[in-house]
């Protein structure tokens, strides 16, 4: 005979007045806890990991020096002013505008540049200027007198245009526009990479039509390389001192590691690696878990 469904009943145990309580059914989540642990535990672990990652990012990101950014002023973006001497007024205005500045032209006299060509500019090419600033261009009214023989003859050619400070492409165009040829070489120098920092004949020197002008384009400043020192097992202050003495910039980081508390247990790059002087290098110090 099947048991009827309904509310739980007390079961008679045999002795008068003795009854067993009805069976207790565990809730689903209690059963889940017995099988696989509390259902909220994975979420708790996830939240803790997120907090740890957020703290590490906040701790080790390079926020810069707070005093370097005035609170009451907006950050002003600067850019390099292109060198446009030797270009036509229209070409120069386009270059200046594309670089984020405002060109303003005026006519100048007594220059060695052909009419309509930029003879000077302010600020000079390669100068840092706030974007939106004005670059003043002196546009030549024409060559006042040819630079040639002492007897004043004007068929000997003009002075070499000044292409120092221009990019390689602009310098070649300026020379070709003056009826000259360019011979390009490359060398390390203090000028920005890709910028002409030497020419021969020098600006203004007498040149003949079709003559070759040698220009030297900068490869940038040559960076000396040094070897990364071994800082394994050192304290933070010792590691910083050794890295700084090698001409590098120390950057400590911290991770829980019980057997290396207060000592370097990892470094990057490895000891003996050749790196550029002044480069920032990292090392890990253990902290108590």
Provide an overview of this structure.
With 289 residues, this protein is α/β, with parallel strands linked by helices. The chain folds into 3 domains: 75-144, Trypsin Inhibitor V, Chain A, CATH 3.30.10; 152-222, Trypsin Inhibitor V, Chain A (2-Layer Sandwich); 225-287, 2-Layer Sandwich (Trypsin Inhibitor V, Chain A), CATH 3.30.10. The protein has helices spanning 28-36, 41-60, 89-98, 168-177, 236-245; strands spanning 11-12, 19-20, 78-80, 102-108, 118-122, 128-130, 134-140, 181-187, 196-200, 212-218, 225-227, 249-256, 264-268, 274-276, 280-287. The strands form 6 sheets. It has a 3-stranded mixed sheet, covered by helices on one side. Strands 8-10-9 form a 3-stranded mixed sheet, covered by helices on one side. A 3-stranded mixed sheet has the order 12-15-13, covered by helices on one side. A hairpin with a 6-residue loop joins strand 1 and strand 2. The longest helix is centred in the N-terminal third of the chain and has 20 residues, at 41-60.
Low-pLDDT stretches: 1-6, 64-74, 144-157
Q: State the secondary-structure class.
A: alpha/beta
| Total E-strand runs | 15
Spatial shape: elongated
Instruction: Report the total helices.
Output: 5
What is the class of the largest domain in the CATH system? Alpha Beta
Number of domains: 3
What is the typical, i.e. mean, pLDDT?
Answer: 78
Report the CATH architecture of the largest domain: 2-Layer Sandwich
Distance between the termini: 65 Å
Strand content: 25-35%
Tell me the helix content. 10-25%
Based on CA atoms alone, the radius of gyration comes out at 38 Å
Largest sheet: 3 strands, mixed
> Strand sequence of the main sheet, in spatial order?
4-7-5
Q: Might you state the CATH topology name of the largest domain?
A: Trypsin Inhibitor V, Chain A
Element string (H = helix, E = strand): EEHHEHEEEEHEEEEHEEEE
């Amino acid at each position: 005979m099947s048991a009827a469904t309904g509310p739980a009943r007390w079961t008679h145990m045999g002795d008068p007045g003795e009854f067993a309580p009805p069976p207790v059914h565990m809730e689903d989540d209690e059963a889940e806890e017995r099988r696989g642990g509390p259902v909220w535990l994975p979420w708790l672990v996830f939240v803790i990991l997120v907090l740890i990652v957020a703290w590490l990012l906040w701790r080790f990101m390079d926020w810069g020096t707070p005093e370097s950014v005035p609170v009451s002023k907006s950050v002003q973006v600067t850019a390099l002013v292109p060198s446009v001497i030797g270009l036509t007024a229209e070409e120069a205005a386009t270059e200046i505008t594309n670089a984020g500045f405002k060109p303003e032209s005026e006519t100048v006299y007594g220059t060695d540049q052909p009419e309509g060509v930029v003879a000077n500019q302010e600020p000079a090419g390669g100068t840092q200027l706030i974007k939106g600033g004005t670059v003043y261009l002196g546009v030549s009214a024409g060559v006042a007198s040819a630079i040639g023989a002492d007897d004043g003859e004007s068929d000997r050619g003009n002075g070499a245009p000044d292409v120092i400070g221009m990019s390689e492409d602009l310098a070649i165009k300026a020379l070709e526009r003056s009826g000259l040829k360019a011979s390009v070489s490359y060398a390390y120098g203090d000028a920005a990479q890709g910028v002409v920092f030497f020419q021969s004949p020098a600006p203004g020197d007498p040149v003949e039509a079709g003559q070759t002008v040698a220009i030297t384009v900068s490869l940038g400043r040559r960076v000396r390389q040094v070897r990364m020192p071994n800082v394994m097992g050192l304290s933070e202050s010792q590691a910083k001192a050794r890295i700084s003495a090698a001409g590098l910039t120390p950057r400590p980081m911290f991770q829980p590691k019980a057997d290396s508390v207060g000592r370097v247990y990892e470094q990057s790059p490895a000891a003996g690696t050749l790196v550029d002087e002044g480069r920032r290098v990292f090392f890990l110090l253990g902290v108590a878990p």
